[in-house]
Specification:
By secondary structure, the protein is α+β, with helices and mostly antiparallel strands. Helix content is 58%, strand content 11%. The radius of gyration is 44 Å and the shape is elongated.
Length: 368
């Protein structure tokens, strides 16, 4: 077998003699006793996405409660609720043509895992496009061929408040849209062929799987083998093309990063040149006129600071003079006299050996 196997169908909580219930489906998925008699040595599945399948029934009940809160009017009244026999889950299965025992070969295992991961990514897109919440995916390796089960719950929306899984299923949706009853089955089959074609185009071709088996196409073994080889060759070309595309993307990304770095280097070089030119100009100034340079760099800032302090001191003296004119008590006058004295002495500190008159000494020592 070297052709794809993909199948999907919907289930209700109640089930019937034609279709299993949600509970029975998930019980088989987790390998509960009495639900997988076709498996010789059942093994627990590996969870690839979301929750364990046995949590799905409870999750469906939660989603139904949420739908009733979101759309109370649409789900209110007789015949408008979500019945037990309404289909509320879609389950899909995807099987790989290799044998499970062959997975002991590391090369085959890598090929299978690549297919499996691509299937999961495709299911995410497919379920979302059709209005399904992708809630779980598991892998079974205890049967002849390794396979993946994927489960989706319909999203409650204004167009599907009852969470009808058949409105999301490609085949059932096409059947419901048929204008004449006799057109329903044909519409169903056509939609499901398209679903299979979409899956093959996205997954089968990339992994060397044929769309149909030899019996379906009525091919002899030789022609079938030629078709298999052609499919493998196509898969190799697709994968090489994808790798080349990744390399091209990486190259373009690195090229853009290189251009950004080059622009940063240019900016740094311009900054360094400006700094160098400024430093060179300053050095030339100091060489051309050392005295003038020293005055400009060191003397002038000191003089400017001195002038600033003198201006502030003059303002302070003016303020004290103004206050003194309006002060009548002796204590306040003494405080103002001391402040005036400080204002006169602060900008020009006298050396320690400078003579100070007794009257000045007494005024300095006075503390009101």
């Amino acid at each position: 077998m070297a052709y794809q196997f993909a199948h999907t169908q919907t289930y209700s909580r109640k089930g019937n003699n034609k279709n299993r219930s949600v509970a029975a489906v998930v019980a088989e998925a987790v390998r509960e006793d009495d639900f997988c008699p076709h498996v010789e040595s059942p093994q627990p599945p590996a969870i690839l996405h979301g929750v364990s399948p046995d949590e799905i029934p409870q999750l469906i009940e939660q989603r139904i409660k949420q739908a009733k809160q979101l759309y109370p009017e649409q789900l209110k009244g007789k015949g408008k609720g979500i019945r037990k026999d309404q289909h509320v889950m879609e389950g899909a299965v995807f099987s790989h043509p290799i044998l499970s025992d062959e997975l002991e070969d590391p090369d085959i295992a890598v090929q299978y895992q690549s297919w499996r991961d691509d299937v999961i990514e495709w299911v995410k897109r497919d379920f979302d496009d059709r209005g399904l919440e992708f809630v779980s995916a598991v892998e079974h390796l205890d049967e002849a061929h390794p396979h993946v089960h994927a489960y989706g719950i319909p999203k409650a929306t204004a167009s599907n408040p009852r969470m009808d899984a058949k409105k999301c299923h490609a085949g059932h949706a096409a059947r419901q849209q048929a204008t004449q009853p006799w057109q329903g089955n044909a519409a169903y089959k056509k939609a499901m062929r398209q679903w299979q074609d979409n899956h093959h185009e996205a997954i089968g071709e990339r992994h060397g799987l044929l769309r149909f088996g030899p019996r379906r196409q009525r091919l002899d073994r030789k022609t079938w083998k030629i078709q298999q080889e052609a499919a493998k060759d196509l898969a190799n070309k697709i994968q090489v093309s994808e790798k080349m595309g990744d390399l091209t993307t990486d190259y373009e990304s690195l090229k853009a990063e290189k251009n950004e770095l080059e622009q940063e280097v240019k900016g740094l070089r311009a900054s360094f040149k400006t700094l160098y030119d400024n430093a060179k100009a300053e050095l030339q100034k100091s060489l051309d006129d050392p005295i003038g340079y020293i005055k400009e760099m060191f003397v002038r800032p000191v003089e400017e600071e001195r002038d600033k302090l003198q201006k502030e001191n003059s303002k302070l003296k003016s303020m004290l003079g103004f206050i003194k004119k309006h002060v009548t008590d002796d204590r306040s006058r003494i405080i103002i006299d001391n402040a005036e004295h400080e204002a006169e002495q602060h900008p020009r500190q006298q050396p320690e050996n400078t003579h100070i008159s007794p009257s000045e000494a007494q005024r300095d020592d006075f503390k009101p």
